[in-house]
Specification:
Blueprint lengths: L12 E6 H10 L6 E2 L4 E6 L3 E4 L2 E4 L7 H5 L15 H10 L1 H20 L8
Antiparallel strand pairs: 1-3, 2-3, 4-5
Length: about 120
């Protein structure tokens, strides 16, 4: 399956996490700064697990990354494409590009499965 992630780091901003995900991430960084939110959720404003080499970003906890990081997609086919902001734009892209549709669906399935194991109650739209 083609990977449409261009390692821009956009998914690493304002990440909402559950208590379970916070416990996992605090094992990696006990001083992780979070802001409490409603419904026992927390917000990470700036991700300390992000690092860059040249213009490519990497996640030092990729296999343990939170559900919202797993779920995020910008809808870019090429790195310099315009970000697609709306559900309508993403659906149109999926209809035009079967490879992107496969990528997005696989990413969403992984995020839902991981999320439901770590304090989220997610279901496919």
């Amino acid at each position: 399956m083609k990977d449409f992630c261009h390692r821009c780091g956009e998914c690493c901003e304002n990440i909402q996490i559950t208590k379970e995900e916070l416990e996992i991430l605090r094992k990696e960084n006990p001083k992780l700064a979070v802001e409490p939110q409603e419904d026992d959720k927390f917000l990470i404003r700036e991700c300390p697990f992000l690092y860059a080499i040249s213009d490519i970003t990497y996640c030092s906890v990729y296999n343990k990354r939170p559900t919202m990081c797993r779920m995020y997609h910008c809808g870019r086919i090429e790195r310099n494409d315009k970000k697609r902001d709306t559900t309508k734009e993403i659906r149109e892209l999926m209809l035009k590009n079967p490879d992107y549709a496969e990528y997005k669906m696989a990413m969403e399935t992984e995020a839902i499965e991981y999320g439901n194991e770590h304090g989220w109650s997610l279901r496919r739209r």
